[in-house]
Amino acid sequence: FNWFPVVLMGNVMLAFPAFLLGIDQTRLKEKLTSRKMDSKWGGRSESIDVTLNVEQACYTRDALAKALHTRLFDFLVEVQMPAIFQSCCLSVYNYTLIKTD
């Protein structure tokens, strides 16, 4: 992995994902390439933005993808579960339908 800070070569790669998520491209770029750290020392608190390195940005990207996949799968199961159980059973591990005649 590269330990240099992450620099995106423009917002072209983020345009479509930002559109699908319904958020601004710059906000998505900010969340994927940096994080906000809150520090308290004595009675003072300070907030700083830290640029992620490539490895950290990859973990952030993967965590976002996993969260989106989980929420989408939960939604689909919730919406389709009544219809599925009328005629077959859904195998959660490999997303296949098993007939239950």
Automatic annotation (TrEMBL):
GO terms for molecular function: actin filament binding; ATP binding; microfilament motor activity. GO terms for cellular component: cytoplasm; microvillus; myosin complex; plasma membrane. SUPFAM superfamilies: P-loop containing nucleoside triphosphate hydrolases. InterPro entries: Myosin_head_motor_dom-like, P-loop_NTPase. Keywords: Actin-binding, ATP-binding, Membrane, Motor protein, Myosin, Nucleotide-binding, Transmembrane, Transmembrane helix. The chain crosses the membrane at residues 6-23. Residues 1-101 form the Myosin motor domain. One of its GO terms (biological process) is actin filament organization. Pfam families: Myosin_head. PROSITE patterns: MYOSIN_MOTOR. Belongs to the TRAFAC class myosin-kinesin ATPase superfamily. Myosin family. This is Myosin motor domain-containing protein. It comes from Paramormyrops kingsleyae.
